[in-house]
Write a structure and sequence with these properties.
This protein has 455 residues and is α/β, with parallel strands linked by helices. Helices cover 41% and strands 20% of the residues.
């Protein structure tokens, strides 16, 4: 795949970039290692000043950064603004809490003094996706750099201007040269990077095949990875739920980022007693969404990021229909306009043996399942190879406790939309990946947890 900016709203090629050659990659690695040798000795206080400055730059120039995101991957401009603001939030969070999270922890043993010490590992490779091109990177950058590591970014090939803009933000914030660098390279170069002894670990957010490839390359070198992969998140609605709030949130949760989010609600599991009303309200919400230019403030749903994504999504829908699913609205790519547009779509009557029942739809397609009770709801929710997030709606405390306990996912949100928050650990189980980002758990992923025993 070429490294290029192609406007998904129009199909126009805006800018191309020449990938780094092997000699240039080697120079970047040399610079990163030299930077780490000095940077690891810099105090938390100094790192914090630079991270706070990065937050200021993000806040002051958020419109400029948001425009880059919208032009490169089609995110509605208002959502892109919110993404930049969230990046500033995570920078401030780790600037304020890193010293506390990584402070020595005393432990009483038979020693005169024993404690746990947290130390940076070195160069960390971040392989990041296009769907949240700033947020996914900054939720790595903030903890990794505050911990004293240095970062190399291999971003998705369709968001090179986002990648370069992030590197520039880190430089302008005052971080030493080489502490964070963007590598404009293809995926084929990742395994070579992992084989370099100076690269100590890697993190990836992306597809299952990409995660498996990185894990395999890292495993050969016995290097740690954190993987955040796909999801087919359930959205359970039980009889006692606030139905209006659930439907409104369901629409937002499915259409988030034009439907291109790992933690978007994708499988709506509703008890029979309220299923007709939920379906009617959801259909009304979906049909009222405004599809259009993502730069316009009134647009609810912009284009998908690439032509391949829309092709794959449409194929999935047709497979589902061929195997018995019913289309309530949408169901075909829009051909009346340029760009990669797919309408809000609802599929119902999906049998357990339908091939799409357990799949992830990476676009504005909702699957609606009717169930007799909470037992059936939990069974369907867990009948997937994924385990990233889950949302469940009930005002019954016993039902709430069962949902929290029995749903197989990295996070469960009751009466709310699944979202990431710097204060809470984020990640999945099963084929949704392993390891955690954000909170104290996220900054602990890429440090040496050193035991010290002194007599």
């Amino acid at each position: 795949m070429a490294i290029a900016t192609i406007n998904p709203a129009t199909g126009e090629l805006l800018k191309t970039f020449e990938p780094l050659n092997d000699a240039e990659i080697a120079e970047k690695l040399d610079l990163a290692q030299q930077a780490f040798e000095k940077y690891q000795k810099i105090s938390f206080q100094e790192r914090s000043v630079w991270m706070q400055k990065a937050a200021e730059i993000l806040e002051q120039e958020k419109a400029d950064f948001a425009k880059i995101m919208t032009l490169e991957m089609g995110k509605p401009f208002k959502a892109a603004i919110a993404e930049v603001e969230k990046c500033a939030h995570v920078c401030r969070y780790y600037a304020e809490h890193a010293a506390e999270f990584l402070a020595d922890v005393s432990v009483k043993t038979d020693a005169s003094h024993s404690f746990v010490k947290y130390q940076p590992l070195g160069i960390i490779l971040a392989v990041m996706p296009w769907n949240f091109p700033f947020w996914q990177v900054f939720r790595f950058v903030a903890p990794a750099l505050m911990a004293g590591n240095v970062g190399l970014l291999k971003h998705a090939s369709n968001v090179p201007q986002c990648a370069l803009a992030i590197e520039e933000i880190i430089q302008r914030a005052g971080f030493p040269t080489g502490v964070f660098q963007t590598l404009l390279i293809g995926a084929a170069k990742v395994a070579d990077l992992m084989s370099d002894d100076r690269v100590k670990a890697a993190t990836l957010t992306g597809s299952e095949p990409a995660g498996a490839s990185l894990a395999a390359a890292s495993g050969k070198q016995i290097k740690k990875t954190v993987l955040e992969l796909g999801g087919s998140d359930p959205f359970i609605v039980l009889e006692s739920a606030d139905l209006e709030a659930a439907v409104t949130t369901a629409t937002t949760a499915r259409m988030l980022n034009n439907g291109q989010s790992c933690i978007a609600a994708k499988r709506f599991i509703v008890v029979e007693t309220i299923a007709d009303k939920f379906e009617k309200l959801l259909l009304e919400k979906f049909q009222a969404l405004k599809i259009g230019d993502p730069m316009e403030s009134e647009t609810d749903l912009g284009p998908l990021a690439t032509p391949d994504i829309i092709k794959d999504l449409d194929q999935q829908v047709q497979v589902g229909v061929k195997n018995g699913a019913k289309v309530l609205t949408g169901g075909h790519a829009l051909s009346d306009r340029p760009g990669n547009y797919y309408p809000p779509t609802i599929l119902t009557d999906i049998s357990p043996d339908n091939p799409v029942a357990q799949e992830e739809f990476f676009g504005p397609v909702a699957m609606l399942f009717r169930v007799p009770d909470i037992d059936a709801a939990i069974k369907i929710a867990n009948a997937t190879p994924f385990g990233l997030g889950a949302s469940a709606w009930t005002t019954n405390s016993q039902e709430r406790d069962r949902l929290i306990e029995e749903i197989e996912a990295g996070s469960v949100f009751i009466n709310g939309m699944v979202k990431s928050d710097p204060r809470l650990p984020f990640g999945g189980i099963k084929r949704s990946g392993y390891g955690r980002e954000l909170s104290i758990q996220g900054i602990h992923e890429f440090v040496n947890v050193k035991t010290v025993w002194v007599k």
